[in-house]
Design goal:
alpha+beta, Beta-lactamase
C-alpha cells in the first residue's frame, strides 16, 4: 500500500485556462535552471478557475521531450497523503476514535505494545504522531520496482508491519511526538476503505477526482493502469563534481 501512496499518478485537464501568457516566464525559467530542474508544469488556480498554466523545460532529457501541460504525467508521491486526509474527513468519522472500532478485526487489534492504553486514532495517523517506526531495512523488503510492489493486499501489508507484536514503534506514547510514517498513512487508508466499503483508489476517483473534472483514465496506482508510459515525467537527480587543482590532486594522491 505504501507504493500506492508513492506512485499514485494524476494529471489535470487544464482546458479551462484563461491565459497562457506570463510576464515572469523568463524568471521562472532562470529559477529552474539555477536549481537544475529539467522541467515543470505550473498551474495557478482560485476557487473556481484556472488562472494560469504553463509548461517549462523537458519531461525527458534523453530522448529530449518537452514538458506538455496537457499530457505530461507526474508521480505525485507523498502528496497523495492529502487525499487520505480528505477521504477521512469526507467520511464524517470521529478522528479521535480508536481505529480498531473501524477496522472490525477481532483478533488483529492495533495498539502501541508499550502503551496499550494510548489508542491509535485517525488524528494521530494523519498527523504522524502514532509513532509507528518501521526500519529502513524492513522497508527495503517491500519497496520494490514496478508493479511487483503490489503482490499483497493493503490489509495484509498493514497487519504484517503495523501490529503490537513487532518492534516497529518508537519507545514513547502515541501522540507525544511526531515521526513520519508511510505505514501509518497506509493504516489510515485501510480505515477509509473499511468505512467506505470500497477500495481507496475507487473511492477517491469517484468522490474527489471525478467531481473535480479530472480525467479518470489518467489516474493510476499500477503501471499497468496506463495504456502507455511515454508521457510519464522522468526523474532526475543533479550531481555536481567539484573541479580540483593540480595541488589538490597531489594532496589526494600523497
Amino acid at each position: 500500500m505504501c507504493w500506492l501512496l508513492i506512485v499514485l499518478v494524476v494529471t489535470v485537464n487544464t482546458a479551462a485556462s484563461q491565459s497562457s501568457n506570463c510576464p515572469n516566464r523568463q524568471l521562472i525559467e532562470q529559477s529552474l535552471e539555477k536549481v537544475h530542474i529539467p522541467g515543470a508544469a505550473i498551474v495557478v488556480v482560485n476557487a473556481t478557475h484556472i488562472l494560469y498554466e504553463q509548461a517549462f523545460g523537458y519531461q525527458s532529457l534523453a530522448p529530449a521531450q518537452p514538458m506538455n501541460i496537457d499530457k505530461s504525467i507526474f508521480p505525485i508521491a507523498s502528496i497523495s497523503k492529502t487525499f487520505i486526509a480528505a477521504a477521512a474527513v469526507m467520511q464524517l468519522v470521529d478522528l479521535d476514535t480508536d481505529i480498531n472500532q473501524y477496522l472490525s478485526e477481532l483478533d488483529k487489534n492495533i495498539f502501541h505494545p508499550r502503551y496499550p492504553s494510548h489508542s491509535i486514532t485517525l488524528r494521530k495517523l494523519l498527523s504522524h504522531s502514532a509513532l509507528i517506526a518501521v526500519s529502513s531495512q524492513v522497508q527495503d523488503t517491500y519497496y520494490r520496482p514496478g508493479d511487483t510492489a503490489f503482490v499483497e493486499s493493503l490489509a495484509d501489508m498493514v497487519f504484517t508491519y503495523v501490529n503490537p507484536n513487532t518492534s516497529y514503534w518508537l519507545p514513547k506514547p502515541s501522540g507525544s511526538a511526531t515521526w513520519y510514517s508511510n505505514e501509518g498513512a497506509a493504516l489510515a487508508t485501510l480505515v477509509v476503505e473499511r468505512i467506505a466499503r470500497i477500495s481507496y483508489i475507487d473511492y477517491i476517483k469517484e468522490n474527489i477526482f471525478r467531481p473535480l473534472g479530472v480525467n479518470i483514465s489518467n489516474i493510476g496506482v499500477h503501471l499497468a493502469d496506463f495504456a502507455s508510459t511515454e508521457d510519464f515525467v522522468k526523474h532526475y537527480a543533479y550531481a555536481f563534481i567539484h573541479p580540483i587543482s593540480k595541488d589538490e590532486t597531489k594532496k589526494y594522491h600523497s
